[in-house]
């Protein structure tokens, strides 16, 4: 493991391209090796378990019992709306789930089996999936939306002399500590993946509930996780942090530097996590909702922070194209991407403006990635896509009530470690800082 550097870190110590080329290569290698090309070959599925099993019923013909689909939520980094578009999408989705299920107390976390979020998207995932004292998630989607709008300037920091003097990064850390208390990755209600970029190992590091349950050295306080994934490298600098047991430490910056769109990492994690998702063998066994946060006006970019956004949003579109390719024929039914259709005006800064702009984005026609043909405008709006997806994940929830096979077998805090690592997450940073 790499030793921890004690020298001060700043923007000049980070490569200008943030190793984007290397990261893109890693993402496509993972996609290609696991499910883009030849994943259906029996020779490449030696560790997989069939998604459907035949059980004989007396003298009758064998009956095929499907294990169902794993539901994954993925949330991009800040984007042009500082996370408000994703939060607004989830508020609409949660209202839809309550209406269609008849459960007025339904939460987003009730209808997803795993979540991944980067940057402010990671903060949003933490708010929705961290368990509170009552056993329920800390925030509803509407409460999480209000949290982001009320605290946007503390979380998504912008450069400026005055803001440097006021040290807004300290305000964000204080906010996260007050919100999450002593909760750790183990205290999430479902598997959660939240990436950052480790400046010591110069590699992505993914905070993972599965890893935390396997090894104490990978369990971190949730307030540290949120501070790490939202640390702006061009302004506040890196966040130095340690695991709960003190054995692992990293120098973290914004998750958007590593993977602004965590969808590929989330899919790879689920497909390789056979302990918790035993019957999930390919993309046809998934239902994935990927939430963007608006496209920035790159013509107005004049700061290092702006160039970070260019790299992050460009990588998000690349991941969207790759994932769409991976889903192939089931792309229309199993993979939904919500993103703006056009750029946001750089003058939109007020909370009320961002809420209104995000609502307008949801009313736009949905944009779909088409295999080898770029993108096309769909017939449905983003809101209609969310409604349709909400119906699909409710059907999956209802199907599980009569299913023999478990789609998900979540480990809990009292479970003993498995002989082999459960997660594929932190293997993206195989040289994590350990001392």
From TrEMBL:
<dbReference type="GO" id="GO:0016787">
    <property type="term" value="F:hydrolase activity"/>
</dbReference>
<comment type="function">
    <text>Lipolytic acyl hydrolase (LAH).</text>
</comment>
<feature type="compositionally biased region" description="Low complexity">
    <location>
        <begin position="412"/>
        <end position="435"/>
    </location>
</feature>
<feature type="region of interest" description="Disordered">
    <location>
        <begin position="411"/>
        <end position="435"/>
    </location>
</feature>
<keyword id="KW-0378">Hydrolase</keyword>
<dbReference type="InterPro" id="IPR016035">
    <property type="entry name" value="Acyl_Trfase/lysoPLipase"/>
</dbReference>
<keyword id="KW-0442">Lipid degradation</keyword>
<feature type="domain" description="PNPLA">
    <location>
        <begin position="74"/>
        <end position="267"/>
    </location>
</feature>
<keyword id="KW-0443">Lipid metabolism</keyword>
<dbReference type="GO" id="GO:0016042">
    <property type="term" value="P:lipid catabolic process"/>
</dbReference>
<dbReference type="Pfam" id="PF01734">
    <property type="entry name" value="Patatin"/>
</dbReference>
<dbReference type="InterPro" id="IPR002641">
    <property type="entry name" value="PNPLA_dom"/>
</dbReference>
<feature type="short sequence motif" description="DGA/G">
    <location>
        <begin position="254"/>
        <end position="256"/>
    </location>
</feature>
<comment type="similarity">
    <text>Belongs to the patatin family.</text>
</comment>
<protein>
    <recommendedName>
        <fullName>Patatin</fullName>
        <ecNumber>3.1.1.-</ecNumber>
    </recommendedName>
</protein>
């Amino acid at each position: 493991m790499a030793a921890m550097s004690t020298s001060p870190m700043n923007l000049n110590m980070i490569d200008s391209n943030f190793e984007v080329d290397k990261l893109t290569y890693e993402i496509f290698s993972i996609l290609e090796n696991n499910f883009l090309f030849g994943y259906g070959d029996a020779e490449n599925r030696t560790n997989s378990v069939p998604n459907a099993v035949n059980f004989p019923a007396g003298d009758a013909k064998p009956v095929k019992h499907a294990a169902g689909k794993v539901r994954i939520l993925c949330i991009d980094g800040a984007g042009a709306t500082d996370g408000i578009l994703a939060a607004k999408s989830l508020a609409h989705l949660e209202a839809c789930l309550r209406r269609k299920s008849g459960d007025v107390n339904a939460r987003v976390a009730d209808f997803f089996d795993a979540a991944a979020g980067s940057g402010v998207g990671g903060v949003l995932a933490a708010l929705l999936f961290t368990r509170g004292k009552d056993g329920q998630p800390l925030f509803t989607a509407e409460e999480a939306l209000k949290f982001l709008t009320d605290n946007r300037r503390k979380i998504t920091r912008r450069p400026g002399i005055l803001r440097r003097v006021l040290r807004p990064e300290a305000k964000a850390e204080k906010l996260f500590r007050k919100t999450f208390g002593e909760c750790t990755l183990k205290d999430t209600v479902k598997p959660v993946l939240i990436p950052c970029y480790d400046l010591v190992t110069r590699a992505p590091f993914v905070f993972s509930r599965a890893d935390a349950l396997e090894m104490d050295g990978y369990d971190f306080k949730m307030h540290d996780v949120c501070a790490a994934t939202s640390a702006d490298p061009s302004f506040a600098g890196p966040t130095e942090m340690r695991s709960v047991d003190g054995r692992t430490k990293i120098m973290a910056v914004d998750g958007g530097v590593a993977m602004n769109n965590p969808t590929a990492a989330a899919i790879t994690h689920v497909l390789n996590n056979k302990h918790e998702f035993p019957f999930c063998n390919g993309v046809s066994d998934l239902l994935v909702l990927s939430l963007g946060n608006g496209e920035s006006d790159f013509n107005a970019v004049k700061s290092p922070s702006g160039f970070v956004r260019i790299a992050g949003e460009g990588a998000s579109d690349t991941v969207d194209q790759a994932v769409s390719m991976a889903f192939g024929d089931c792309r229309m039914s199993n993979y939904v991407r919500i993103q703006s259709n056009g750029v946001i005006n750089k003058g939109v800064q007020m909370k009320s403006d961002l809420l209104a702009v995000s609502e307008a984005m949801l009313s736009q026609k949905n944009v779909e990635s088409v295999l080898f043909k770029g993108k096309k405008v769909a017939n449905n709006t983003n809101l209609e896509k969310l409604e349709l997806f909400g119906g699909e994940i409710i059907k999956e929830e209802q199907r599980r009530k009569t299913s023999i096979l478990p789609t998900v077998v979540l480990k809990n805090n009292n479970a003993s470690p498995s002989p082999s690592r459960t997660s594929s997450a932190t293997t993206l940073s195989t040289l994590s800082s350990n001392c």
